[in-house]
Amino acid sequence: MEQNTPSSSAPIDEQAASDEHAASVDRAPIDEQAASALTGSGLRLALVDTSDDAAFTEWIRADFRGFHSPAPKEEVLTEARGYLRDRRTTAVYDDAIPSPTPVGTVNSWVAPLTVPGGARVDAWAISSVTVAPTHRRRGVARALLGSELRTAAAQGVPLAILTVSESVIYGRWGFGPATFASEWRIDTKRVRWAGPQTGGRLSFTDPESYRETGYRVLDAVMASRPGEIGLSPYLADRLIGPLKGTPDAERFRLVRYDSADGEPQGFVSYTVKGEDDFTRHKVEVEYLAAATDEALVALWRFLLELDLVAEVRAWTRGVDEPLPALVSDVRGARVTAVEDHLWVRILDLPAALEARGYERDGSLVLDVSDDLGLANGRYRLTVTDGVGRVEATEDAPDVILPVSTLGSVYLGHDLARGLALAGRITGDAAALDRLFRTAVPPRLSTWF
Ligand SMILES: CC(=O)SCCNC(=O)CCNC(=O)[C@H](O)C(C)(C)COP(=O)(O)OP(=O)(O)OC[C@H]1O[C@@H](n2cnc3c(N)ncnc32)[C@H](O)[C@@H]1OP(=O)(O)O
């Protein structure tokens, strides 16, 4: 469980990726291979100048439309332009149609991804992949994803990451599901608190006055667990309070937890929704941030003991969320779903494997295939005192696997056995598992 205390005073925009890679987001030119593939289909690939409000607004409209979201009002557009300006923003235009709205969108930025051992590795984060329903299944997404991955690799970023709308899309581009998220439904009329007492203070607050503190808490949370990413102000603010246009924004509540000596350690943002029966409200947890075990325990207890509430629902928790141990009746706190969450794509195999730590020593030859030709090859990984060294080799492979499978096991999840059963690892999968698996499973507790 998390034990990092948010003592750092760095503002959130400084705990971002390395300067070198962050600058590459602006510097990298358009990918010519994708541009010419789209030209062949009568379409135009372009980087969007996000300081051009009119062009950026059309891109945002396309993004909202692509996910079937309501058409954004002016205040939503203004807020989104402010938050998303720094991302590398790419559009596909069909100049033969009368509308100026792009028919394809994607954006990307370099985010620090926490890996086993605690290092934070630059990762090319990809979001807002949409193709207009009028232009689907003509290879637009294929061009956009190829463009993103080649650009990231050319800039020396070792990994690409994304969270997905549908789990069937991204395997073909070398991504594998690397973290899983649990969804919870707790019958609070049934369970009694069985966890420890905590000595700190809970209090209501509001997003404006808590924001800076919340950023520090979030940074401690994100640094403490493999699979979490450093959050931009946009991603952090969404967890602390509602953005413009969020349904039920007036229902948001924000409660902070500070240790007995006044150290901020966590918060929970949530909404309470009414039922016909006034004693049976439902709580939806927007985000529970706990930088310490003490905060985790205190905030769960707060939620589970709310009066006039019959049910608490929570999403994107880890697969090792300790709730069952904290309640009197295990069946009153149910996991209602476990889903793939963070998808990882290795771009630079030696850099990615040397960046993470290992819990056991050993040596393994991996033969990796990659349809995009970015990370394929045969490498020996040698781990000594938890530190990995990678070198190209012609030795016989211990395991043969596609790059998507390597992405799946990269953050330490115990997926190797199943992937071997499915034929996606050939050879000594148990040895791969021993070297890559971590005692604590990776987790990503938010969407991006
Ligand atoms: C990181 C993120 O942003 S996740 C969000 C993804 N976006 C969405 O879910 C929004 C709604 N959907 C869309 O906008 C589009 O359908 C997209 C972006 C998913 C796909 O765009 P398209 O341009 O139609 O995809 P494209 O024609 O390039 O297809 C490439 C391949 O992916 C497959 N594919 C594309 N979308 C899907 C899907 N939803 N389900 C299964 N397969 C799919 C295609 O069949 C094709 O397969 P092939 O390699 O075997 O030929």
From TrEMBL:
Keyword DNA-binding applies: no
Domain of life, source organism: Bacteria
Entry keywords, A to Z: Acyltransferase, Transferase
Biased segments, Polar residues type: 1-10
Active site: Y170, F448
Residues that coordinate or bind acetyl-CoA: V129, T130, V131, R137, R138, G139, V140, A141, R142, S165, E166
Domain N-acetyltransferase: 43-198
Stretch list, region Disordered: 1-26
PROSITE patterns, A to Z: GNAT (PS51186)
Subunit relationships: Homohexamer; trimer of dimers.
Family: Belongs to the acetyltransferase Eis family.
Name of the protein in its database record: GNAT family N-acetyltransferase
Origin species: Leifsonia williamsii
Lineage summary: Bacteria, Bacillati, Actinomycetota, Actinomycetes, Micrococcales
